[in-house]
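Honest question from a wet-lab person: if I give you the sequences of every part of a complex, can you actually get the arrangement of the whole thing, not just the pieces? Trying it with mine:
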Amino acid sequence: MCPNVLFQFKGVMFMELDKCLYGLPNIIDARQFDLEFLDRFFKIATDMEGVAKQGNCDLLHRKTMVQLFYEESTRTRASFAAAMIKLGGQIMFATENAKLFSSAAKGETLSDTIRVLCGYGPDVIVLRHNEDGAAEEAAMFSSVPIINAGTGKNQHPTQALLDIFTILKEVGHIDGVKIAMVGDLSNGRTVRSNSYLLGKFKGVEIDFVSPKCSMMGNDVKEYLGRHCVKFQESTDLREVAPHVDVIYQTRTQKERGSDFSRDDHSLGYFTVDKEILDLMKKDAIIMHPLPRVDEIDKEVDSDPRAAYFRQASNGLYARMALLKMILTPRA
Amino acid sequence: MCPNVLFQFKGVMFMELDKCLYGLPNIIDARQFDLEFLDRFFKIATDMEGVAKQGNCDLLHRKTMVQLFYEESTRTRASFAAAMIKLGGQIMFATENAKLFSSAAKGETLSDTIRVLCGYGPDVIVLRHNEDGAAEEAAMFSSVPIINAGTGKNQHPTQALLDIFTILKEVGHIDGVKIAMVGDLSNGRTVRSNSYLLGKFKGVEIDFVSPKCSMMGNDVKEYLGRHCVKFQESTDLREVAPHVDVIYQTRTQKERGSDFSRDDHSLGYFTVDKEILDLMKKDAIIMHPLPRVDEIDKEVDSDPRAAYFRQASNGLYARMALLKMILTPRA
Amino acid sequence: MCPNVLFQFKGVMFMELDKCLYGLPNIIDARQFDLEFLDRFFKIATDMEGVAKQGNCDLLHRKTMVQLFYEESTRTRASFAAAMIKLGGQIMFATENAKLFSSAAKGETLSDTIRVLCGYGPDVIVLRHNEDGAAEEAAMFSSVPIINAGTGKNQHPTQALLDIFTILKEVGHIDGVKIAMVGDLSNGRTVRSNSYLLGKFKGVEIDFVSPKCSMMGNDVKEYLGRHCVKFQESTDLREVAPHVDVIYQTRTQKERGSDFSRDDHSLGYFTVDKEILDLMKKDAIIMHPLPRVDEIDKEVDSDPRAAYFRQASNGLYARMALLKMILTPRA
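Yes, you can. This is the full assembly:
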């Protein structure tokens, strides 16, 4: 076991983080997973695709989920709900915008909300929150596992898991993969979470392609340095596209203050379009966490290398796998 | 088979429409149903009243519904949920106001949202949207059936189906029925959808009663002309009330820009009140898609001819019937 | 049977109230319960704690709940949902903010909404509403039981039931209990409902502790006088704390126009903090309906006398008990 694993619970390794202790199989931070966990996760997620397509099963019969969302979401909330229901479980309570419509509007702290909800006996709480560290805080006060469904601008660990599961399925391997992360890199939590997770693998090479006003944060670059991941920075996707196995495109996070024009080519070239398609390798893929606005042209959708809708479906299988790993005793 | 039927799928006839192709038993447009479909629908909806009153059944066990609502709704959303649950199915995911709280706020197109949701494996998507044509667009990109639960100001086909089911139950026949459609006719999607559906029957006569500022659209009147439906226009319900079997009252659609005063009798007479009750035939009925504001006086509620709450209950039976027709193999 | 009981239905006594008639086991008003009902409720709620901890059961299989909330809520809505699901029932339809997102926005009356929802065949409707009297109005038009989940500034009967259940569990008795109700007393519906319910018991003594601008209403004080409950009023919790078995703290209801500074000690002393803890009896408890803002210091949480999170969990057991009493035939 790595020296910095705090403990192992039901097959989930918990790494040492400085902010809080974990006494439960919480999913908090993309850095917490080791390769043994990831290997098991990939196997179960692959099984889950079969389960999802055969129809529902009863694995989580009588298990209940609370969805506590302080930020809007379609796909994350829907895919967790679908995952729970496909496995025979139930959504006990879901709030789409806890900030506006719940006791948070009356000034309640997250820790109080978590303690109260735990008293109602759910089996797992799925949390989305606008503040960094919210999942750690929730985990400190929760008597049931917390799954981080996106917090602040830093972490979205279940997205990272479905993303590398997609790379494995589509490219065939993660070790040695060459990936371009493109767009609004300073504000996108998916590219940060993915970088943390890719740092676990060997021989990964990352090209960060962004305007200078939204480059990947130094903390992530330092993390990659410590984990021997080669990375380069660029402002022109056309230079990078011919060499990579994966183009991971992202949306401009206007709700986090980002704003730059893709049409202003003095900033660089960040749109996936016909020109980029023509430059890409024949067996490379295009990923996107979605929602997309205009950063991938519609005409790209019909190209077989456009993997983003398949990636979204992998979100269902990945979340089914996580729920199975967290909520059922290890066989 | 009529020459303009594109194809038949699980007993649902799909008529030729110019906007899109249908590969699934979608419910998109009140014009798509033929008399054979309607006859089958009426029989199943009648059965469903019995099923609903006996308690739940397991017909749709393990089937799941997504409710994607870009506009607010109480009764349509609740009745689809009730229909699904009464038949043993489940709501996988529901959003009350997708425009505000989902990825639409981040600029995602409807077609992307539909493709992602389909990847989560629902059996049917119920869509309400503020734009005309949204259901057609959704159907083009969906791998599961789409049910139009109200789009733009044009279509509300499941409301039209429950409305003519109500006429059949209450009046005893649809051929030859005399119906007054009253109120804000230019903006109400129910009166438009109903007109389309009534155009399938023989000998129907329609009186459109509205202020001059909100008359029924020419497109509907042309459609009725082509289908040999007699119609007249009026501004005074008192002249029409004595002759009709059904008064179909509607609400002023303030959220679509309509505004006229019912008290300004220079515009006409559009309120169903005691005066109108006294003019009506003894076996006529008053319908309303609800919600009602002030266009039917409260004192009318206790009259046995007030059919609008019975009509709302028929909404449950109609939607149960549609779900059965779409989601179960034809016996 | 007491002379002012209107009727008994499935073991629930309905007392004479002047506003409306009850034909169903509605939970409308904290005054409606007699001691026989309360005794049965306490026994069932105690059983329900065991049921909740063992996992779900099938007692309410095929039963459905509508949650019609015109005001935001986390804990009341979540605990009713949890109670229904723990007992094997289902949520048919829930709306988080009916005022904004439902047909109420189009001007529909509560009575119309209730009549329509009843047509969809739920087994019970849980209502939260901003107006006093809303639950009585709903009950008049409903064909299924209504549970008042908080209306106006007057009534929150299920909170009152869980609160006295908490006193019974924690203190061991309700007769003779000495309780301080603290904070924004003129606007808090829990302290009003609790006062009504405590008036049923013998030897209860209440200290109302509030700033002069938010004293308990005269109607409640007159009710207590008629029911021989001793009460006093104070502006300083430090004087009261040493003598009471229960400190029932409440939040300033800013959404109802209340605003006073706890730091302005010319108004009095209303915060539960270390100073108050040191004054309290060793076996006294601190309750709070939650959410809390700053009226109980965080440092109080770790004291064993801090009963408010246990009280929240009792909300689950109390609501399970009520659903069992309303929805199952009496054994």
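Two things worth pointing out. The longest helix of chain A spans residues 35-54. Chain A has two domains: 5-156+313-327, 157-307.
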